[in-house]
Amino acid sequence: MRSTGSWYDVRDRRDGHLWQCRLKGKFKIKDLKVTNPIAVGDHVVFDVEDKTENTGIILDILPRENYLIRQSVHKTAHAHLLAANVDQAILVVTLFFPRTSLGFIDRFLVTAESFRIPAVLVFNKQDLLSEDMLDFQQELMELYESLGYRCLVTTAVTNEGLDQVRALLEGKVSVLSGHSGVGKSSLINAITPTLDLRTKEVSTFANKGVHTTTFAEMFELGPDTYLVDSPGIKELGLAETDPSEISHYFPEMRDLLNQCRYHNCLHINEPGCAVKEAVQEGTIAMSRFDSYLSMVGGQDNRR
């Protein structure tokens, strides 16, 4: 339910009791170099160590149905697990104060696609947008909805869209992600006031958010309804993704599979490329193609 580095809050399935557990020795997961061997949402086997102290020992991590992962910011060649065994991934997006880049949105969607996790975009902070920004947001929503991604509009201060978010979460395990300052904690508080999560104002310096969630944590919102609140993400480097596979995780490019002249086409400068033709014709958005090129080139996502 919660990871604080070396200790984990583990919920007993039988009675719902929370135990403070630590790992038995060092866990090495085959073919997976990660900074954190256990993620919130993992199913584990544990033994009670001390009932009086409410502590336990994690003995095993059960096979995962899926997981969200990103490149570690601090440890080269390693990845960081964001959450495991989720039904959907929700990205909270703001177009102003702080601005979520289109490159970041696309990287999140590609990460979810690569592990077959349905993704939803929640456009928050409507009250801060000008008419021109609202029009731009509508264009973005129409673009992503045309690709099969559900888009919601919310404003925590006025409760706009909160009923839709509650319905979206019902009966599912969801992970909530986004930059620091986009309003994840405020949204959760508005949906479930009893949680009373800590929030902070966005710093006016460079319009960057301030980290308030320092550890990933899963909250039980209702029967069979769980929400993982993850720390604000500044960068989302792709992990476990070969450049030749990235186009498979863009639905509009996936639709053109096997239509390029060369079967191993990377859609960069090869002749007879169906994807580049679609970009020129306007059936693939230039912003999406730019995101694709930055991912293949291993560039950052601050665009």
From TrEMBL:
Cofactor binding mode and count: Binds 1 zinc ion per subunit.
SUPFAM superfamilies: Nucleic acid-binding proteins, P-loop containing nucleoside triphosphate hydrolases
GO MF annotations, alphabetized: GTP binding; GTPase activity; metal ion binding; rRNA binding
Domain CP-type G, first and last residues per copy: 74-236
Keywords: Cytoplasm, GTP-binding, Hydrolase, Metal-binding, Nucleotide-binding, Ribosome biogenesis, RNA-binding, rRNA-binding, Zinc
EC id: 3.6.1.-
Entry binding sites for GTP: N124, K125, Q126, D127, G178, H179, S180, G181, V182, G183, K184, S185, S186
Enzyme class: hydrolase
Signal peptide positions on this chain: none
Keyword DNA damage tagged: no
GO terms of biological process kind: ribosomal small subunit biogenesis
Residue ranges annotated for the EngC GTPase domain, each copy included: 84-234
HAMAP family for the chain: GTPase_RsgA
Self-association state and partner proteins as the record states: Monomer. Associates with 30S ribosomal subunit, binds 16S rRNA.
PANTHER family: SMALL RIBOSOMAL SUBUNIT BIOGENESIS GTPASE RSGA (PTHR32120), SMALL RIBOSOMAL SUBUNIT BIOGENESIS GTPASE RSGA 1, MITOCHONDRIAL-RELATED (PTHR32120:SF11)
Designated name of the protein: Small ribosomal subunit biogenesis GTPase RsgA
Species whose genome carries this gene: Salmonirosea aquatica
